[in-house]
Every structure is written in structure tokens, then in C-alpha cells.
Amino acid sequence: MIGQILSTMLPVFLIAGCGALYGRYRSPDIKGLNVLNMELFVPMLVFGVLADQKAPLQDYAQLALAATVVVLGSGIVLYPLAKVLKLNLKTFLPPMMFNNSGNMGIPLLVLAFGDSALPAAIVLFIVEMLLHFSVGLYMLDPHSSIIQRLRLPIVFASIAGLAVNISGIHLPDWLLETLNMLGGVCIPLMLFALGVRMLEIDFSDWKLGILGAIACPASGLILAWPMIAVLDLPGLQVASLWVFAALPPAVLNYMVAEQYKQEPHTVASLVLLSNLGSLVVIPIVLGLVFSAGYV
């Protein structure tokens, strides 16, 4: 089991470490890399996985439902805590709800459970991303246009991939291979960018960061447990949901907070310190998943 955890986490640490080391001396344009990743490579990966008939989407409907409950339910579960501690709800709750299913979730699930986990990882990522750009942005600005919020390449790629999958259209192998090659770029690039972002950690809000590092995975795991008990999910999807529920806040929360001027400095500390805390949480969750024999 220790060997399985190490074989999963070491590539994550090494690639992110390369990003941190490179960023320490070269200061790359990480914003430009993230834009390229989110507008080209990630949509290619999403479309390719969804359009591939080897991954029938009806098999992942319950997983998508469970992920929705985990994301939205985390905000409900942590609302009383935020009120008691007198935290700014717009600053604290979105990072607790919208986790790092892209930069960390996709590569982590693939490394942990193999390529067969990629469809589940993509479904979880799409659910989190769509909720982030609909519910999440509404939480920050109720007056923003939903059309503007959803006008994103990842949304178009998701809709197109769903249409191809549901219609039963079989794309030629050469096209799927091209999509897979382009999409494959996004996984190491996500981890590399995460490593560069880790250099921006500010320990001035360390108390809130520690709270987030505990509250984010705790709320997700609390909500995942009844969903796993109620829904008839295959073992691989159960394992994927446990890991998804334990993921730290998405780095995207900081970018959105900066755009909406919602205490970006505080959000950055909350997000990055929580990601640092995941170095402890994720190996524990993986150990429990492997020991339970879900995969």
C-alpha cells in the first residue's frame, strides 16, 4: 500500500517541484500558460474523453450527481462555521466548495488508478468547473450574466463531447489520437503551474489557511460518505469520489477573487496553504482507498 501511495504522489511532487524550482529562478508567465491550458489543452482532453465511445456517459450519471452534492453541500455544511467565526462568506465559502479537480484531481486520479480512471476524473472536473462558473460566480456577483459566465472553451468542449457520445457518432482513430496527444499536455502542465503558484504562499493569514486545509477536505468527505452509501457506484468511481472529496481548493478561486476584487490576498493564502496541507491529507485518503480494496 505504501508503494502504491508513493508511486502516485511522487510524480505529483516531482512535477510540481520542477515548476517551483523553475519558477524560483526564471519567473515564467504562468498566467499565460494557464490561459493556454484552459483554452486549448484542457478542452481537447475533455472533448476527446467524452467523445470516445469507450466511456459511455450514462455510466457516470450517478457519479456526477454525487460530485454535485459534494460541491454544493460543502457550502451548506460550512455556512454555520463561517457565520460563527464571522468570516466573509464570499471570501471563505467558494474556495471550500470548488476544489482542485483540474490541476491536482485529474493527474492524481490517473496516477493512482490508471488510465481507466480518466473518464471519471473528467466527469468530476466538468461538474466542478460548470458549478464554479455558474453558482460560484453568482455567489460573488448575482448580477452577472449567466451567458457570459458559461461562454468558455471548456463549456463548449463539454457540450460537443456530450453530443458526440450520446449520438453514438464514432470519430476516426487518428482524430481521437490527435485529441489525446493535445489533451495529454494539460496534465503535467497543470502540476507544473501548481508548483509555480506554490511560491506565492503568504503565511500572514496562516490561521485561515489551516482552517481551510482542514475544513475543505473534511466537508467533502462528510458529504461523500452518504452518497457512496446510497448510490450504487462501481469501485473505481467510489475511489475517485473519495479522492475528489478530499481535494484542496482550486487555484482558480484566487484568479476569480482577483477579478471580482473579493479579498484576493486572503483568498490566495487560503487556497495555497490548503494545497500545502493536502500533502498530508491526500496520502491518508489514498491509503484508506487502497486498503479498502475499491480498485
From TrEMBL:
Organism listed in the record: Marinobacter koreensis
Transmembrane regions listed in the UniProt entry: 6-23, 35-51, 63-85, 97-114, 120-140, 152-172, 178-196, 208-228, 234-255, 267-290
Keywords of the record: Cell membrane, Membrane, Transmembrane, Transmembrane helix, Transport
Coiled coil: none
Record's bilayer topology term: Multi-pass membrane protein
Localisation per UniProt entry: Cell membrane
Family under the similarity heading: Belongs to the auxin efflux carrier (TC 2.A.69) family.
Domain of life: Bacteria
Protein name: AEC family transporter
Source taxonomy: Bacteria, Pseudomonadati, Pseudomonadota, Gammaproteobacteria, Pseudomonadales
Region forming the signal peptide: none
Entry annotated with the keyword Membrane: yes
PANTHER family: AUXIN EFFLUX CARRIER FAMILY PROTEIN, SLR1864 PROTEIN
Keyword Transmembrane: yes
